[in-house]
Amino acid sequence: xxxxxxxxxxxxxxxxxxxxxxxxxxxxxxxxxxxxxxxxxxxxxxxxxxxxxxxxxxxxxxxxxxxxxxxxxxxxxxxxxxxxxxxxxxxxxxxxxxxxxxxxxxxxxxxxxxxxxxxxxxxxxxxxxxxxxxxxxxxxxxxxxxxxxxxxxxxxxxxxxxxxxxxxxxxxxxxxxxxxxxxxxxxxxxxxxxxxxxxxxxxxxxxxxxxxxxxxxxxxxxxxxxxxxxxxxxxxxxxxxxxxxxxxxxxxxxxxxxxxxxxxxxxxxxxxxxxxxxxxxxxxxxxxxxxxxxxxxxxxxxxxxxxxxx
Amino acid sequence: xxxxxxxxxxxxxxxxxxxxxxxxxxxxxxxxxxxxxxxxxxxxxxxxxxxxxxxxxxxxxxxxxxxxxxxxxxxxxxxxxxxxxxxxxxxxxxxxxxxxxxxxxxxxxxxxxxxxxxxxxxxxxxxxxxxxxxxxxxxxxxxxxxxxxxxxxxxxxxxxxxxxxxxxxxxxxxxxxxxxxxxxxxxxxxxxxxxxxxxxxxxxxxxxxxxxxxxxxxxxxxxxxxxxxxxxxxxxxxxxxxxxxxxxxxxxxxxxxxxxxxxxxxxxxxxxxxxxxxxxxxxxxxxxxxxxxxxxxxxxxxxxxxxxxx
Lengths: 310, 310
Description:
The structure is a homodimer.
Chain A: E1 4-8, H1 12-23, E2 27-31, H2 37-55, E3 68-71, H3 74-78, E4 83-86, H4 92-105, E5 112-114, H5 121-124, E6 134-139, E7 148-153, H6 161-171, E8 175-179, H7 188-204, H8 210-218, H9 221-225, H10 230-237, H11 242-260, H12 268-282, H13 287-305
Parallel strand pairs in A: 1-2, 1-4, 2-3, 4-5, 5-6, 7-8
Antiparallel strand pairs in A: 6-7
Helix pairs in contact in A: 1-2, 2-13, 10-11
């Protein structure tokens, strides 16, 4: 059933969420104090639409911009909303202020899901009138192309809020996971940081160039991670004995490698080395070309994954 | 120009390399003391052929099994070979024995590339008559579908050997990288281990289930890693200022997350927890179904990547 969704903040993440919500038939009201947000969000939805049509059955040729409104105040965007996706600045002060204003306009049961990547639900809900309806629903950028949504409850979040949010995002063909403890980076960004730490260390130690690290991931293990997570990969690596066999026989080699991983420090010199290496990697390609190619490929990959059993 | 390639060891990796070499017009002679290797390798090539046809232009309908021989001795396989891919047991004793026998049959300039995942080129070449022609060329499994080949020179490897091997693997549409220092796990498996360490830690700390960790990767950051490496991803995450801007502004948040990553120990209890979590994840799916779906998807992803600028 079409809903009216309030999106607080009309930056990249807010615009991408809005495009997704529109594609699933909802109407969207974005709030942003910046007068340029309206043009930016409409332009974003127009550019995203062909990708969304590719991924979603039955969408019209043209984006339904008549179902998109952009207002300067949060209260206006929340008026009549049945779900709120908060995409404001990732600092606690602005979050509290946004929620305070939102609650003046919302019915008490309406969920407020924060897209925060760095804050905790418990802190975000701390000053709310109805803290039980507040949770974290963290996407990967861009949310209209990458399906993952990490759900995290704060201490005061209602037990119903997570299943309710799950049902909502699942209806948008998102893949939700439940993060059971509030920790920096939720879950996906912890994993990303763990990989990145060694990607930096390998350059710092002179084991390989920035370009070769990137090529190694994108033409090696990254191809499997685009399809399966690491536990399932090692289950298949364990032969007939599966994951237990892998862990009992090859677990010790993992433990040895773990002990050899680096703990780099991002000094000014290392930053220079990384930037120089990246310049050698991308050569004359510009950012727009790279982003366009990435988005086209993400669409193709997301389509490819629609038929997988895992 | 078609070459005659010796593949030492007819297990999974040797069979997969052989299928690739055949697809690029070479003739292949596998050595394996196990009498069942012949049937296994022929069956493997037959099953791999439709995937290779999908990825490679102009292949015949049926696998050219007339260009494949399997013998029980290394000397027979190496007779007349212009390149050797060693895929034997990953222990130093068997490697030395295999190389000793291979050298009785090979011209002195013929490269011997070891598929080892855990040994160093310097150790493998230690007792050779012509150590300068020995290097590590480590693939990801299965090599006929995942393009990465990590090249590592030992202390005695000739300066020409790495560029020669690069030219050979590039002619097979592989993506080669140069690992500049001999370290456990070469490069790709260090990165894999870094990610896996935190994937295990998240379960050990009760932050999320095995299934949710796997879904988070495969429907989140893994989708980007299937296309791009982490340095390039953060370059695009840095906006107009690129990688420098990312590192200067968000480098400190990485450093904070790095400090919070876990150092799990694979105790018996943790292994039980991981195996149980994996069973809940895969439910009734069997390994063959999962492998078939993975291989089909890897082919589709490899095809998708053929048109990318990175």
